[in-house]
């Protein structure tokens, strides 16, 4: 072979090698999400949506592969609601950890040992923690592992609270933290002495609604409830518990003449008569309150799409108020109190009505919506725009993935 042919051959080989490199599979970043609770409560949906939308995401030439460690400690008589929801979302699960919500030293140590094994075997690169219990488990595993991984802690709550010794131990082993409220991110820095450069405020993971507000859905719902088309139907989604301020709702309804209410949610054991049946009867509201029970997924969103408005009173264990956000995503005009982080989610007179937790004031707000169809439509459209712009699982997934990558630098 002459020199020219040899050089041509070398050029071709180099080009082939470059092509092979460019088409090779990207490097993997293995992320395990930990969630120390088997109950469907608090920010579970946020953590699952984050894991779902991260899986397969490619950032800077690295592909994120996620798994979700589901708590295997389930109280007698209850289902593992988190495992069921993870399966429905198609999230890859790990079912080998107890991950108890409350401190139980034998379970904690056993889980930490198992995590240590996975870390040292190279099965995980990032441990993304969502609850205090799993955060402590990850920190103990990191302390005993011979290989180092990155621990990331998401604080979904509306406040940081008062971090105790266990939280401080966990944060001492943590590479980065996220929050969904700016002041909570600031508190992580101020209260825990955490480096500000490693704390990020991320989007609230939200999903597109399975149905949107629609006349046909309204007709369907009104037929189910046997209501005339001129009725103004407001919905509320909440667990029926004493702490949820139901007396405020009944008094508000009594002050809002001509308004009917659809209640979506299950009662705690033994509280329905006290919280609902008796006060409704005393106020003469029996014909105006409709209990629809617990509905899920598309069936739930179809009910939302058939309502005229939505009311939200008290944040529960999820400070980001999922029921409120979902109602806004459907395009419902909302009336909400100014409790908790609600004013961070709803801008008064822009994408909803925010009022003090006073039944007469809230009743007048419902009357305002009832008589002002143009105002309802304006607020509903703005609510849907807010949900689409601010609450995105895709955005949150990429923000967290880029945070992981930054920790490798």
Mean pLDDT: 92
Order of helices and strands: HEHEEHEHEHEHEHEHEHEHEHEHEHEHHH
Q: Which CATH-level-2 architecture of the largest domain?
A: 3-Layer(aba) Sandwich
| CATH fold call of the largest domain | Rossmann fold
**Unreliable parts:** 19-23
In the CATH scheme, the class of the largest domain would be: Alpha Beta
How much helical structure, as a percent, in the residues? 40-55%
Write the layout of secondary structure elements.
Elements: H1 3-23, E1 27-35, H2 44-54, E2 58-59, E3 62-70, H3 81-89, E4 93-94, H4 105-120, E5 126-129, H5 132-144, E6 150-155, H6 165-172, E7 176-179, H7 182-192, E8 199-201, H8 215-225, E9 232-237, H9 246-255, E10 259-264, H10 272-283, E11 289-293, H11 297-306, E12 309-312, H12 322-330, E13 334-337, H13 342-345, E14 353-355, H14 359-371, H15 373-390, H16 393-408
Parallel strand pairs: 1-3, 1-5, 3-4, 5-6, 6-7, 7-8, 9-10, 9-12, 10-11, 12-13, 13-14
Antiparallel strand pairs: 2-3
Helix pairs in contact: 2-3, 2-16, 4-5, 5-6, 8-11, 9-10, 9-14, 12-15
Short note summarizing the structure:
By secondary structure, this protein is α/β, with parallel strands linked by helices.
Give your account of this protein's structure:
It is built from 16 helices and 14 strands. Helix 10 links the parallel strand 10 and strand 11. 47% of the residues lie in helices and 16% in strands. Residues 19-23 have low confidence and may be disordered. It has two domains: 26-206 and 392-408, Glycogen Phosphorylase B (Rossmann fold); 215-390, Glycogen Phosphorylase B (Rossmann fold), CATH 3.40.50.2000. The protein starts with a helix and ends with a helix. It is an alpha/beta fold and 409 residues long. The strands form two sheets. Strands 1, 2, 3, 4, 5, 6, 7 and 8 form an eight-stranded mixed β-sheet that branches.
